[in-house]
Automatic annotation (TrEMBL):
Ranges of residues in domain Thioredoxin: 17-185
GO biological process: cellular response to oxidative stress
CDD domains the record matches: GSH_Peroxidase
Record bears the keyword Coiled coil: no
Signal peptide span: 1-25
InterPro entries in alphabetical order: Glutathione_peroxidase, GPX_AS, Thioredoxin-like_sf, Thioredoxin_domain
This protein's name: Glutathione peroxidase
Amino acid sequence: MNALPALSLSLSLSLLVLFGGQVLAAECPTLLQHELPKLRSKETIDLCQRFAGKPLVIVNTASHCGFTPQFKGLEALYKRYQDQGLEVLGVPSDDFKQEAATSEETATVCYVNYGVTFAMTQPQHVTGDKATPLYKELIAQSGQSPRWNFYKYVVDRQGKVIAHFSSLTKPDDPDLLKAVEQALDSKP
């Protein structure tokens, strides 16, 4: 018998025990291979570290938009499914000329006015040539660029976009909830 396969199996089992029985992903999905600056912080959000293996709703936001009250529904969605692993990432953007002039004002709208507890980034470009690499990948996978603020992408545990929804789709819309539940049921 060749000793190498037995050693490899032993090492793999040891690593599983060492990491609490969790299987670690060999590679982070392309979608998540980015870091974005965190809102009201000097820190960054390492998307792989924070979201790999988790279902995710990514939404571009704006502080002064008719859809801004959707923050309340997004927070409710996050709270409803958080214990099942759902993450929400808000990405403020002024691409549609409705974001606050400063990050502090953006943070006040999110955290004070709407009580947001899910992850929020500093304002980013989400459309066109200047779009952040995260959004370029969302657009490539879905075939759809955000047409306005509060455009929503649902991403499964493998980092694949499984659905996208217009700004008109509220966070409690049955079709959006169905996509979120599908993402929750996906295998890492």
